[in-house]
Amino acid sequence: MRETKEDIKPVAANELPPEFKKFDKPLGVEQHVYNQILVLYMTHTCILITVLYYLPFGIVSPWTIVPLIVYGYIGGLGITVGCHRYWTHKTFKANKPLQVIMMLMQTVSMQYPIFKWCRDHRVHHKYTDTDADPHNATRGFWFSHIGWLFLPKHPEVEDKLKIIDISDLARDPIVRFQSKYYWQLVPIVFYIVPMILFQWMFPELTLFQNFVLQHVRYGVSLHFTFFVNSLAHMWGDKPYDKEISSSENALVSFLAAGEGWHNYHHTFPWDYKAAEFGYKINVSTMFIHFFAMIGWAYDLKTVSHQLLVDRINRTGDGSHPLFNHAHVHDKTPINNDHKHSETSLPAWGWGDKALSKDDVVITETLFTSKRRG
Ligand SMILES: [Zn+2]
Ligand SMILES: [Zn+2]
């Protein structure tokens, strides 16, 4: 199963389709400068106006929070289910209508096109906690949370973005379509559709207030996503692998629709639940199950329970109830040489050629279907 280096054909930056290339400088601006303008100044100013003026002085109805949460969730699930579990890690398959729905939901989140988000995230999984990790948590809470978006990329990150394999995304017509028409789709699904809905629900809103509220939705959902990179890489138990920084964090799971079970996720990134337990604070898994039940999602990858227990006993920190404390542990430190060898780095997901035979063997597939989509 393990391939030689020659068999791995990464897509170099200069081989990317033109739809992808234009996003290395969004709208012609350096990415960190663009982020500073859009996210840091504009969005956070909108949050401050709402929290310090609109809500306490009754300028906008507190009931506007309800559609903000609902529409925020639509974008959030576009990230957690679509961008993360489907396109980055390939944990399940989806028919074309579901792919289109997930693509539009991901556009609602305005976290850059799918390919760009996935490329960063695959690099994060492969080079976690090193200089090549885009949001390297060893550089502190603020860097991993949001600072990484406002600073020029570390040269190691630039290098790895060029070699990480995203050839599957470069071949995906829906991913390419989204990149090609991204700046046409964003105004429609991020501004026009929700603003019409808000105006209909709250006719007293001015256009400016409506615009500000959309950025509140954006900013809050961004922070909830960012907690996965910051809080879930700092605080929590490590029942599956004590050698990595990612941790089990229930608060992050609550805020990020089930993405806080992060020690499990980094140990088994190809599991569609991104957690050991299906419905335990995990709205994203419920979403996938719903579409699996109607036949739109299928071939859901998960990890066999018995083999999971072996892993808990071998590399866990002892916090898991099934951890066998009588087990005599090998005291030799876990070999971290993989951090220096490109061919034996952790796999980013199911499609990664670096996925080991052992990991394939412990994987089970649910809702299998021979031919769909
Ligand atoms: Zn992570
Ligand atoms: Zn991930």
UniProtKB/TrEMBL annotation:
Keywords: Fatty acid biosynthesis, Fatty acid metabolism, Iron, Lipid biosynthesis, Lipid metabolism, Membrane, Oxidoreductase, Transmembrane, Transmembrane helix. Residues 63-269 form the Fatty acid desaturase domain. The keyword Repeat does not apply. The chain crosses the membrane at residues 37-56, 68-87, 181-202. The keyword Lipid metabolism applies. It is found in: Membrane. Its main location: membrane. Its cofactor is Fe(2+). It is a multi-pass membrane protein. The histidine box domains are involved in binding the catalytic metal ions. Belongs to the fatty acid desaturase type 1 family. This is Fatty acid desaturase domain-containing protein. The lineage of its organism: Eukaryota, Metazoa, Ecdysozoa, Arthropoda, Hexapoda.
